[in-house]
Structure formats: C-alpha cells, structure tokens
Amino acid sequence: MTSETTAKADGAVLSGVSETALMTLQVRANEARRPDSIIDDPMAIRLVDSIDFQWGKFGLSRRQDMAVRALAFDTETRRYLADHPSATVVALAEGLQTSFYRLNTAGVGDEFRWLTVDLPPMIELRRKLLPPSERITMRAQSALDFSWMDEVPAADGVFITAEGLLMYLQPDEALGLIAACAQRFGGGRMMFDLPPAWFAKGITRGMLRPTLRYRVPPMPFSRTPSQLANLVNEVPGIRAVHDLPMPQGRGRAFNAIVSTVQRVRLFDSVRPVNTLLEFG
Known about the structure:
By secondary structure, the chain is α/β, with parallel strands linked by helices. It folds into 2 domains: 3-58, no CATH class; 67-279, Rossmann fold, CATH 3.40.50. It contains 11 helices and 9 strands. It has a 7-stranded mixed sheet with strand order 5-4-3-6-7-9-8. The protein has a two-stranded parallel sheet with strand order 1-2. It is globular and about 45 Å long. The N and C termini lie far apart (56 Å). One of its GO terms (molecular function) is methyltransferase activity. This is Class I SAM-dependent methyltransferase. It holds the Pfam family LCM. Keywords: Methyltransferase, Transferase. InterPro entries: Ppm1/Ppm2/Tcmp, SAM-dependent_MTases_sf, TcmP-like.
C-alpha cells in the first residue's frame, strides 16, 4: 500500500443508504472528467481522487443521469437565490454532493448560507475532504430529526433540497418530512426527486442492480406526477406543486427520449420525477 493510498479517506465507513452517495459521486465525477461534459464539477473529481474505495463494485459507468439531476437542482436553487440572495439552502442527506461549490462559482452572489444535514460518518467525511466556508453549517443528524429547522433563519428565505433522499424513506416518513417543512417554512421551497414505481420495486426486490457485487438499498417511497400534484390538497402549507422538466443532457437520442417521456402523459406512471413545492 502506497503512502498516497494511506493518505486517502476510507470510503468503507459509509454503508446502507449513505453508501449510495459514493455511487452518485462516481457517476458525476466520471461525467465531469469528459471533454464533452455536461457539468463543471471539479470538486466531485477531487472527492473521488481523495477517497479509498473499491469503485469497481458500482460498475464502469458512463451514465449521465446523476449529472443531469444535479443540474436540475442547481437550476431551481439558482432561481430561488436570484430572488432571495440571503436565503439558506438546506441540503437534507446531502451525501457527497458538491452543489454549494458549483453554485458559489455560478454568479448567484456570496450572501446565501448553506446547511448540510446528514449522518455523522458522512459529516465527518465532508469535514475532512471538502474546503470549509464560514457560510456552511453542518448538522450530524438524520433529516427526520427536525431540530435542524432551528438553524434556519426562515425570514431570509429557505430552499430545501432532498436530492436522492425521499425514495429511501418509508411513505409516512417522507410525507411527514414534507409536511413539517411546509408548516415551518412559509414562503420557502422544497425540491426532491423520485423514481417511478416499477423501478423502485425492481430495486427493492433486488432485480435491478448496477453489478452483481452491489445491491442498491430498498426504495419504499414513490409517487406519480398526478399523485404529487395532489399534495397541494393533502398537505397544509403547500401552495403549489411543479413537475419540473429534466435539463438537456448529452446526445440527441438521450434528449429526444427524455423530452418525449416528459411531454406524453401516457408515460407519467413510468418516468422519474423532479418535483418543486412552493410553501404558502
């Protein structure tokens, strides 16, 4: 073992749902390394190069979906910060996302604050590997421990992200989190993504696996676009629900398929969703 290897952080400290952060990081970093990359994410590359892990268990991925998802979250966060430059962005179960660093160089100003909420092993890894900022606060706890809300000065605006989180929660946990945010943060917004039910069931049953060496944790929560639209009637404090289009990716075929699936309602029950909630 070389000194370079021993200097790296041990990715094996992450397990279960937390380990999926390594898989999404790898996909994003692989995309960022491409000469025709759709995302500028040097911090993702830095993280992968700083973590000692058997990356091969996730397969040799050339996917771009995680980068496209990251761009979708960046777009809506920037849009909110344009109107609320001093807002707090709350990144629930942030994992090894590098959104703050992308946004910080995207011309949205230097007034916004950032609150990372994740489990202790993940927070320790982020503290060790990512550059500190006086605008970043970290809470080592579950997103379902709502005491993180006390850290948020809601009067300046709040944008909550749950990127790659809600699908791993039980339905009552996911809906309870949404309801608590809606009740607490009037005028704020919350964005999350969900897989279609067929995909979630395939993952949960172990039928869909990146490789034989790795099984993604169960995904007990999924909703169709129409079910999510009805949250405005089911959850007090939700003023509007937006079914967001996916950003452009790389390649005509990819973009044509994504565009068709999103435009044709027949595909609503079988496509993934990015959802934005407005709180009243």
